[in-house]
Specification:
The protein is of the alpha+beta class. The protein has 10 helices and 28 strands. The longest helix has 34 residues.
Length: 557
């Protein structure tokens, strides 16, 4: 639910920019027909409804994801608003307020996202419940309405005319509507039905219920109701002469004095902005062709610039076989506790619009190669790269690059000695990998015997991660071997390359794999044989055709 809430927040922030544009256009196009404003509000609704958006170089949105998805999980939460000054002001505050304490069992960002997501859901339920209850209440009030003609009914349950219903909308009139006002009232409500306003207003309220946390959308809904009524007024008075307009304005005044429809979404005659509507009716002039063209051009421009997402150029760097990406702005100072990590060796980047292209292991752009890297002291998830101006570019780690298949190293008593586990990977279609406590095999489905990748007595753990940088995972296992003198060793099998690597020193040292969630990588623990005393521990990497532990151990194929 937290991920859904985060996506809705991002969509509401993008739609908020479009709301500001519509607010700015209203005084500029004040003489334009009201239906053009309804069309602009329709673009806002489309932005809120559409779960996907195309990228465009013409987009004026500062950022498609001001709150990136990884903000829920990273140790140092950061926004990416697309406005450098705002990022610089907000991100240090977020880092200080929401960075988890070293001994904490939960990330404050996750706690807050959990609470806010439930609060959002409660607000949605309350608003929709209000709409249903008020609708049912109004239905009961007009249940005794008498049929006047066609879909027009008279009732004593209301004192203002309105349209009610979605599938079969009906016009409800209070008893005693002046004979002179009646034609104008009916014409107005019929215009609502022909325009489908009973659907559009209901849709607007549903969207408001979902995005109730965004204040601009409350203003947008209020103005949508005004513009719906204004567009309906214009549709009716288009066929009226001066005398007819005066009669229509009088009907508005008479029916707008009191109203108590009591439902969230009915279309009531004289419901909103009666004074302004009367003035608009009496001063209305048929808009010229140029004004209509300008209004349509504004709608097209708003759609092109704010219904599309900015083209995001995602830069990626590989540091110790882990991928870090950057979409944020440079910062002038490193976080407290940061330290120099080394010199960048490998850089790659691509356009986010073409994610199907795989550039893993290829250096397409060396503009950062040779630059110094710094590790954030607060988190291993963020690395800073110093640019030519002396500022620091933040790169955030991608989601976990190490996957657990089996791991009994900490719970050997739970091993099922007769069990079989199968695994299929999208990188190796039509291949079934099988694990038993004694071996890992690969069945390519060609009718022959499965290929044995790893053998042990037993195989305690198997992890999958890309060590070689070819975009395909290797199988990394901790296993025991031998009879009488039994040692623990590490075996890495590169299925794509058909190569096997091992770390062993029988009689002297035992080697075992350990996953570090803080760094999202595999470590190798080296212990003295039999006594089990930890001698050294270091990250497992692949360099120069060899598997290497960064504490200095090294092994070939």
């Amino acid at each position: 639910m937290e991920a859904i809430f985060l996506k809705l927040v991002n969509q509401s922030l993008s739609a908020g920019w479009l709301v500001l544009v519509v607010l700015a256009l209203r005084p500029v196009l004040r003489r334009a027909p009201r239906w053009s404003f309804c069309l602009l509000w329709g673009l806002v609704a489309l932005r809120l409804l559409c779960p996907v958006s195309i990228e465009s170089p013409l987009s004026l949105l500062p950022s498609a994801q001001p709150l990136p998805p990884e903000i829920l999980y990273t140790a140092v939460p950061r926004i990416n608003s697309g406005i450098p000054a705002l990022n610089s002001a907000v991100n240090p505050v977020l880092a200080e307020a929401l960075a988890p304490a070293p001994a904490a069992s939960a990330n404050p960002t996750q706690i807050w996202s959990f609470v806010l997501a439930r609060l959002w859901l409660a607000g949605v339920v309350l608003l929709l419940l209000y709409a249903l209850v008020s609708y049912a209440h109004l239905r009961r009030r007009v249940a005794t309405a008498t049929l006047l003609r066609e879909n027009i009914r008279e009732t004593e349950g209301t004192d203002t005319p309105f349209v009610l219903g979605l599938l079969r909308p009906a016009i409800y009139l209070p008893y005693g509507v002046a004979e002179g006002d009646l034609p104008y009232v009916i014409a107005h409500e019929r215009a609502h039905i022909r325009r489908g306003d009973h659907w559009w207003k209901a849709l607007g309220f549903v969207l408001l219920s979902v995005y109730w946390f965004h204040p601009l959308l409350w203003a947008a809904y209020a103005l949508l109701c005004r513009d719906i009524e204004g567009a309906c007024d214009e549709k009716v008075i288009r066929e009226l002469d001066g005398e007819g307009r005066r009669g229509y304005a009088a009907a508005l005044l008479h029916c707008g004095v009191r109203r108590r429809t009591g439902a969230a979404c009915p279309l009531a005659f004289g419901e909103v902005g009666v004074k302004a509507r009367i003035k608009a009716v009496m001063t209305h002039r048929k808009p010229g062709t140029w004004l209509i063209a300008a209004a349509l051009a504004a709608c097209v421009a708003a759609a092109v610039c704010f219904l599309t997402d900015p083209v995001v150029r995602t830069e990626e760097i590989r540091v110790n076989n882990r991928i870090y990406t950057r979409q944020g702005e440079a910062v002038e100072a490193l976080p407290d506790g940061s330290y120099e990590l080394g010199v960048l060796k490998s850089v790659r980047h691509h356009t986010a619009a073409h994610p199907e292209e795989d550039f893993r292991g290829t250096n397409l752009d060396e503009k950062y190669a040779g630059n110094r890297l710094y590790q954030s002291g607060a988190s291993a998830d963020v690395i800073y790269l110093e640019d030519l101006s002396g500022c620091y570019l933040p790169f955030t780690a991608q989601t976990s690059s190490v996957a657990e298949w089996v791991d009994y190293t900490g719970t050997p008593s739970e091993m099922d000695w007769d069990g079989v586990q199968e695994l299929q990977l999208p990188q190796f279609p039509r291949v079934t990998f099988r694990y038993t406590p004694y071996e890992v095999t690969a069945d390519a489905g060609e009718g022959g015997e499965p290929a044995v990748l790893i053998t042990g007595m037993p195989v305690w753990s198997v992890w999958l991660t890309d060590l070689t940088g070819d975009g395909l995972p290797e199988f990394c296992a901790t296993l025991s071997w031998g009879s009488g003198m039994i040692d623990t060793r590490v075996v890495i099998y590169d299925y794509a390359g058909g190569a096997s690597y091992g770390l062993e020193d029988r009689g002297n040292y035992d080697y075992s794999l350990r996953y570090s969630p803080e760094e999202d990588r595999l470590y190798v623990d080296k212990r003295s044989y039999w006594e089990g005393e930890l001698v050294s521990s270091g990250p497992l990497v692949y360099e120069d055709g060899c598997i290497r532990v960064l504490d200095g151990g090294r092994t070939g194929e």
